């Protein structure tokens, strides 16, 4: 299983004007790793799929903002 | 030709009056990586791409119009009851002067949509790579808007739209694989 986020630590200068963000992250969603979709992948139920935006569990990668509780949506 | 269903692809609910969020969402309406650009880009490329992937461009291009309608609904709901004063405070004063509450194809900075946002190179690989890039950029735009939004209902719809961008990118990547296949060789997927 691949992670859907990667992080790195940019250089922090003693003279940075803003409080440094020690760690920066970026998104690496699952489709980057799957290639041509293999047959017989596990599916959501139709109702779950309508909410998730995909029928395929392997491609589900919800994004949450800093102001919201995570994972109140579709079970993964 | 198209058949229209008079409903949204995914429900759009808005919990708070927040015209500033409308200003940000306009990026996905009339911006370079927005839904209008996506729909027009894909539907236009169909004519000069190998037969095997025309249907994919039709499907995704059509779905982008469904997304455009969702974004339009959000922008409309977020601004329809805003006073001129609130529009000004949200950074939409210039928009109000020109368009009142009307929607317009422009980006978050107020720059009108232009066909130079999209390309049709006639080279199938070049065109599909542009499409993949467009999907990843639209996915990123949704991330940044969700990061700035504290409206849980809007974020729910935006999360759905971002997931669709992931699926579109996946399908365009698969289209490249189909066009790369050596002719006459047995497929092994
Ligand atoms: Fe898309």
Please bin the fraction of helical residues of chain A: 10-25%
CATH superfamily name of chain B?
Ferritin, core subunit, four-helix bundle
Q: What is the radius of gyration of chain B computed over CA atoms, rounded to a whole number of angstroms? A: 18 Å
Give the total of beta strands of chain B. 0
Low-pLDDT parts of chain B are none
Overall pLDDT of chain B, averaged? 96
Biggest pleated-sheet summary of chain B:
none
Provide tags for this entry.
heterodimer; A: 76 residues; two-stranded antiparallel sheet; 2 strands; 14% helix; B: 189 residues; mainly alpha; Ferritin; elongated; binds fe (ii) ion; Spore_coat_CotJA (chain A); CotJA (chain A); Ferritin-like (chain B)
Q: How does this structure look, described?
A:
The complex is a heterodimer of chains A (76) and B (189). Chain A has 76 residues and is mostly loops. Chain A has a domain at 42-76. Chain A has two helices and two strands, in the order ββαα. Chain A has helices at 31-34, 46-52; strands at 5-8, 24-27. Chain A is elongated, with a radius of gyration of 17 Å. The mean pLDDT of chain A is 91. With 189 residues, chain B is mainly α. Chain B has a single domain, classed as Ferritin, core subunit, four-helix bundle (Ferritin, Up-down Bundle), CATH 1.20.1260. In chain B, 61% of the residues lie in helices and 0% in strands. In chain B, helix 2 packs antiparallel against helix 6 (124-148) and helix 6 runs antiparallel to helix 7 (152-180). Chain B is elongated and about 65 Å long. At the A-B interface, helix 2 of A face helix 6 and helix 7 of B. The structure holds fe (ii) ion. Residues 38, 64, 135, 138, 164-165, 168 of chain B line the site of fe (ii) ion. Chain B: InterPro entries: Ferritin-like, Ferritin-like_SF, Mn_catalase, Mn_catalase_dom.
């Amino acid at each position: 299983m691949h992670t859907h986020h990667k992080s790195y630590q940019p250089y922090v200068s003693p003279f940075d004007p803003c409080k440094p963000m020690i760690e920066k992250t970026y998104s690496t969603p699952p489709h980057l790793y799957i290639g041509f979709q293999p047959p017989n992948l596990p599916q959501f139920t139709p109702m779950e799929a309508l909410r998730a935006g995909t029928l395929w569990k392997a491609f589900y990668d919800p994004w949450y903002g800093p102001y919201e509780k995570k994972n109140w949506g579709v079970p993964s | 030709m198209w058949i229209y269903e008079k409903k949204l692809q995914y429900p759009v609910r808005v919990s708070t009056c927040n015209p500033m969020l409308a200003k940000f969402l306009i990026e996905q309406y009339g911006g370079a990586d927005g839904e209008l650009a996506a729909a027009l880009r894909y539907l236009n490329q169909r004519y000069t791409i190998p037969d095997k992937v025309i249907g994919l461009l039709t499907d995704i291009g059509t779905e982008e119009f469904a997304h455009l309608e969702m974004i339009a609904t959000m922008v409309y709901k977020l601004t329809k009851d805003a006073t001129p004063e609130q529009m000004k405070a949200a950074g939409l004063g210039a928009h109000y002067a020109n368009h009142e509450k009307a929607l317009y194809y422009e980006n978050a900075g107020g720059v009108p949509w232009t066909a130079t946002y999209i390309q049709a190179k006639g080279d199938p690989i070049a065109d599909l790579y542009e499409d993949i890039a467009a999907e990843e950029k639209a996915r990123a735009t949704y991330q940044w808007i969700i990061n700035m939004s504290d409206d849980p209902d809007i974020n729910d719809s935006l999360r759905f739209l971002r997931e669709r961008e992931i699926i579109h990118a996946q399908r365009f990547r698969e289209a490249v694989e189909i066009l790369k296949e050596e002719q006459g060789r047995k497929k092994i997927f």
